[in-house]
């Protein structure tokens, strides 16, 4: 495998793209991406644009060709036993029928709105929210099924804070979002008016004010990523006890959810759930009716007329992210189909676009990364021998998944209708609702994937202790089997290392190799770890990206991803050296192996972002801005400073004692 990885065909670096006016010692990100940034206009339908977006667009086009390669069936419902390809075509056809959507306007949701207006008690409201939640509209809380962090051999339901329409609780209280709040209130009124709702201005104010009060009990983003704080196991009776105003038995009955599935649940943010439930009193019924009408309109807007869909985009797209045009309808249609039957499309995508040789090469890369982690853990000077043993046990239990699932999802319960877009959406939501709840009480399905093969991304799942790399990310600039090993290790190798690193970040390190939330560290080792992570938090707190008007990175919010980036790149470098098996790294296109490695790393983070999107992501995204994912990480690596002979005064210079090394 080593020999195959090290076969040299090209450097993987376009030398003409490098900007000689910007020294890599000062700004590696712009040395590699500066010319692209200067000449590239962010597409009008994008809030940010770069390497991930380009690959995602390519995947969308491939999926469209797959979908349109099947002739759409005549209008009307398909039986549940119809071929998957026909169902996919019918779903897409229903979304692309613009004339029908415009003719119907808001009519598809008029009946639901009338039912809300007729609600005369809190108990009726609770029942209607439960019924609509089954059809895919947001309920009082965010709910999903995953394996239990305390007992990873079983599935359990998570009940998380919800009920708001802005990206985060901070949008309802911080001064910097005052203009957004004004725009949001106006947006609610406009959308209710377009939906034909009488007295839209008053209802909009009621809905917004209730959301504001719900958000006041929400945890912030930093607290909401702390798994130890989030893991609050409650019996059904215990859940009911903290939310006495919310009759869970009636709620679940209306939802069609078996009460036994809620015998025990994880309540993520108890104060937020209790805070929302405390507002479910008869004096607030008018506000709750307004809130539910707005939830119906907001949740259905993309599936209604072009006028309503466009108006919804003008807030959630333009106001929040800066994008000025909606994505083309066919792209939104592809997203709709992928959300409904993503693996059915993915199976064909893999057949047409995935090279099995890439899977074999990835197996070799993963092997090198895991062995490099093993070597590094054994050599750590801050971790005790006993904790090292536990860390190595966890590493031994990592499960890599590459390309596509070994078992495809069964969509036989879906019966699509090419003439009923909203009906399709709600039927798919019910299918997902039943599929998710159906997991509770059954054995863990470790073959399940939580991304489709055509997704340009990767993930680590702590409960399964698995790293997953969909087929669509296994292409340039991240991976190319015909490219030099240094470039592959600097890009996809660092991604692999990043995902493995999540198993040892500030939250992933709380889980053992079986996916159980348990404290397997000594107090001294945890303190040494947190000393290093605290230094990394401090570094990122001092950074502010271009376009943010001085708003800094939240080092605490982004620490998990920053640990992943730092460990991922450091271990990828060690894995590259390991792959050479003692041989000298070749010089290709005048670049050393180290230069190709770091240039490839920077190339992978190519991106431009609109100011509105930059601010939004700084507020809610656990990832740092791409320029710092590139630059701040290399500033901490001795190998980068050696490769480019950096010196004090260089902008990326960090004194050796200030460099953070964790894994």
From TrEMBL:
One of its GO terms (cellular component) is plasma membrane. Residues 457-660 form the Peptidase M13 C-terminal domain. Keywords: Hydrolase, Metal-binding, Metalloprotease, Protease, Zinc. Its cofactor is Zn(2+). InterPro entries: MetalloPept_cat_dom_sf, Peptidase_M13, Peptidase_M13_C, Peptidase_M13_dom_2, Peptidase_M13_N. Residues 24-405 form the Peptidase M13 N-terminal domain. GO terms for biological process: protein processing. Belongs to the peptidase M13 family. PANTHER family: FI17812P1-RELATED (PTHR11733:SF167), ZINC METALLOPROTEASE FAMILY M13 NEPRILYSIN-RELATED (PTHR11733). This is Peptidase M13. It comes from Leucobacter viscericola. The lineage of its organism: Bacteria, Bacillati, Actinomycetota, Actinomycetes, Micrococcales.
């Amino acid at each position: 495998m080593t020999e195959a990885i090290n076969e040299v065909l090209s450097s993987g670096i376009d030398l003409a793209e490098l900007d000689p006016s910007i020294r890599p010692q000062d700004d590696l990100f712009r040395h590699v991406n500066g010319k692209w940034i200067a000449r590239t206009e962010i597409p009008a339908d994008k809030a940010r644009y770069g390497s991930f977006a380009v690959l995602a667009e390519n995947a969308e086009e491939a999926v469209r060709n797959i979908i349109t390669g099947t002739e759409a069936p005549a209008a009307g419902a398909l039986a549940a036993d119809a071929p998957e390809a026909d169902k996919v075509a019918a779903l897409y056809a229903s979304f692309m029928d613009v004339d029908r959507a415009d003719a119907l306007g808001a009519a598809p949701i008029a009946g639901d709105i009338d039912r809300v207006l007729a609600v005369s008690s809190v108990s009726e409201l609770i029942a209607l929210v439960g019924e609509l939640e089954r059809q895919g509209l947001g309920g009082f809380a965010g709910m999903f099924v995953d394996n239990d962090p305390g007992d990873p051999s079983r599935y359990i339901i998570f009940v998380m804070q919800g009920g708001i329409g802005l990206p985060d609780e901070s949008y309802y209280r911080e001064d910097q979002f005052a203009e957004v709040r004004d725009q949001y209130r106006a947006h609610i009124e406009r959308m209710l008016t377009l939906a034909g709702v009488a007295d839209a201005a008053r209802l909009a104010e009621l809905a917004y004010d209730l959301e504001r009060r719900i958000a006041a009990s929400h945890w912030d983003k930093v607290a909401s990523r702390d798994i130890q704080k989030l893991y609050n196991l409650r019996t059904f009776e215990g859940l009911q006890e903290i939310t006495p105003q919310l009759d869970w038995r009636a709620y679940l009955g209306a939802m069609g959810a078996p009460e036994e599935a809620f015998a025990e649940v994880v309540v993520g943010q108890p104060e937020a759930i209790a805070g929302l439930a405390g507002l479910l009193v008869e004096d607030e019924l008018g506000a709750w009716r307004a809130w539910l009408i707005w939830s119906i309109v907001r949740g259905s807007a993309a599936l209604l007329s072009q006028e309503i869909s466009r108006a919804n985009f003008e807030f959630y797209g333009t106001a929040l992210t800066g994008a000025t045009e909606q994505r083309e309808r066919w792209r939104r249609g592809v997203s709709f189909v992928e959300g409904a039957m993503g693996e059915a499309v993915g199976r064909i995508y893999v057949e047409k676009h995935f090279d099995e040789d890439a899977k074999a090469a990835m197996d070799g890369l993963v092997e090198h990364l895991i062995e490099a982690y093993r070597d590094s853990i054994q050599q750590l000077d801050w971790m005790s021998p006993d904790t090292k043993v536990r860390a190595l046990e966890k590493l031994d239990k990592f499960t890599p998944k590459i390309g596509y699932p070994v078992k495809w999802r069964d969509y036989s319960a879906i019966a699509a209708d090419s003439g009923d877009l909203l009906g399709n959406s709600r039927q798919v939501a019910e299918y997902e609702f039943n599929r998710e709840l159906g997991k509770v009480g059954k054995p863990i399905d470790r073959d399940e994937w939580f991304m489709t093969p055509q997704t340009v991304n990767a993930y680590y799942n702590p409960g399964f202790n698995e790293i997953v790399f969909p087929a669509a990310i296994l292409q340039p600039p991240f991976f190319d089997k015909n490219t030099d090993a240094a470039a592959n290790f600097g890009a996809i190798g660092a991604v692999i290392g990043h995902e493995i690193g999540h198993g040892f970040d500030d939250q992933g390190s709380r889980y053992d190799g079986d996916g159980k939330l348990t404290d397997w560290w000594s107090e001294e080792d945890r303190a040494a770890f947190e000393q290093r992570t605290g230094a990394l938090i401090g570094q990122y707190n001092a950074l502010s990206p271009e376009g943010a008007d001085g708003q800094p990175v939240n080092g605490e919010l982004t620490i998990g991803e920053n640990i992943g980036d730092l460990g991922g790149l450091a271990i990828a470098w060690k894995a590259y050296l390991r792959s050479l098996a003692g041989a000298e790294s070749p010089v290709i296109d005048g670049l050393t192996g180290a230069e190709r490695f770091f240039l490839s790393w920077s190339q992978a983070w190519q991106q431009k972002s609109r100011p509105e999107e930059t601010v939004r992501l700084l507020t809610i995204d656990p990832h740092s801005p791409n320029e710092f994912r590139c630059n701040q990480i290399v500033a901490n690596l001795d190998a980068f400073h050696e490769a480019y002979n950096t010196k004090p005064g260089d902008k990326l210079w960090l004194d050796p004692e200030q460099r953070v090394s964790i894994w």
